[in-house]
Design a protein that fits this description.
The complex is a heterodimer.
Chain A (H helix, E strand, L loop, with lengths): L2 E5 L2 E5 L4 E8 L4 E8 L5 E7 L5 E3 L5 E5 L4 E6 L8 E9 L7 E3 L3 E6 L1
Parallel strand pairs in A: 2-11
Antiparallel strand pairs in A: 1-3, 3-8, 4-5, 4-9, 6-7, 7-8, 9-10, 9-11
Chain B lengths: L4 E3 L2 E4 L5 E6 L6 E8 L3 E9 L14 E5 L5 E5 L8 E8 L8 E2 L3 E5 L1
Parallel strand pairs in B: 2-10
Antiparallel strand pairs in B: 1-3, 3-7, 4-5, 4-8, 6-7, 8-9, 8-10
The chains are: A mainly beta, B mainly beta.
């Protein structure tokens, strides 16, 4: 069975500070990994994804994440937080094999940005 | 172009009533997913449609839940004899067929069972 663990259900940072949202995964096959963002009363929007190749992936809005197989991690970072980054962030895993491409999500991390 | 749309955006129903939730995927997307987002359980997979293949229903929580996809496009999720624990946001997503392609999510339907 595959699973995703997001450490910290709530992270609070000051505007301009580093954002670090943690994600660890468990999978018996090489995973594809995703970060989604959800603003209040909206659906999920893809920030970035890792499938194959370069392990450091860059996404929208200045976010990036690094796939570390040895640590089974896919942490999301942004050098300088902006007020507009306040939202809930979900790490998700997809099985790279098989025929069902469903996403398995972590519980989410609510990011608060303080002025 | 148009994204994934869902209707209604909000639905309040009485316990024991049946409800239907609708999803219009992005044109050309052959894969369609339903997920449920609730406070206690987070985001859970419900069901997956891919082209003309039999759907993967492995995430449906009980036999009160069913879904269909007509003509490879619009999908309807039906919940019979609703219970209070069915209260959640139901999200629909669509994608091109292959894994690694982005799943595009609709805004969701917020279901409240009173």
């Amino acid at each position: 069975a595959q699973s995703v663990t997001q450490l910290g259900s709530h992270v609070s940072v000051s505007e301009g500070a580093l954002v670090l949202l943690r994600c660890n995964y468990s999978s018996s096959v090489p995973p594809y990994l995703f970060w989604y963002v959800q603003y209040p009363n909206q659906g999920l929007q893809l920030l970035l994804k890792y499938t194959t190749g370069a392990t450091l992936v860059k996404g929208i809005n200045g976010f990036e994440a690094e796939f570390k197989k040895s640590e089974t991690s896919f942490h999301l970072t942004k050098p300088s937080a902006h007020m507009s980054d306040a939202a809930e962030y979900f790490c998700a895993l997809q099985n790279s094999g098989g025929s069902n491409y469903k996403l398995t999500f972590g519980k989410g991390t609510l990011l608060t940005v303080n002025p | 172009g148009a994204g994934v749309s869902q209707s209604p955006s909000n639905k309040v129903t009485e316990k024991g009533k049946d409800v239907e939730l609708r999803c219009d995927p992005i044109s050309g997307h052959t894969a369609l997913y339903w997920y449920r987002q609730s406070l206690g359980q987070g985001l859970e997979f419900l069901i997956y449609f891919q082209g003309n293949s039999a759907p993967d229903k492995s995430g449906l929580p009980s036999d009160r839940f069913s879904a269909e996809r007509t003509g490879g496009s619009v999908s309807t999720l039906t919940i019979q004899r609703t219970q209070q624990e069915d209260s959640a946001v139901y999200l629909c997503a669509s994608s091109l067929a292959h894994s690694s392609y982005e799943q595009y999510f609709g805004p969701g339907t917020r279901l409240t069972v009173t």
